[in-house]
Amino acid sequence: xxxxxxxxxxxxxxxxxxxxxxxxxxxxxxxxxxxxxxxxxxxxxxxxxxxxxxxxxxxxxxxxxxxxxxxxxxxxxxxxxxxxxxxxxxxxxxxxxxxxxxxxxxxxxxxxxxxxxxxxxxxxxxxxxxxxxxxxxxx
Length: 139
Prior knowledge:
By secondary structure, the chain is an alpha+beta fold. The protein has helices spanning 3-22, 31-43, 55-68; strands at 47-52, 71-73, 86-91, 93-95, 104-105, 111-118, 131-138.
């Protein structure tokens, strides 16, 4: 690859990043916001490596992370949606505004949330404590 091609590709990448950072459409999540949320989800164990005693602990963690970063869940969470040892749900979220009653629904992204009950046994082969593996990410 010659120097001009490398420079051209770099300029294209930079211009798309600049455009993404100045895009003022509040209905769309920006690439850097999505990456930041996914990084926090990963650090908080929502990448399938954390263990939770209840499914709703994962939902509470997601809600907390969203709130700390200017977003909120855009739907009522009913426990009926999160039954069973395994499952998957799509969660909608919104950008917070100055008016707490008027969040702006994000249109270009969703949160995928899945869970699996992990059966743990101790040395005597009795159930020690069941925990949930939870995987969540912003699309």
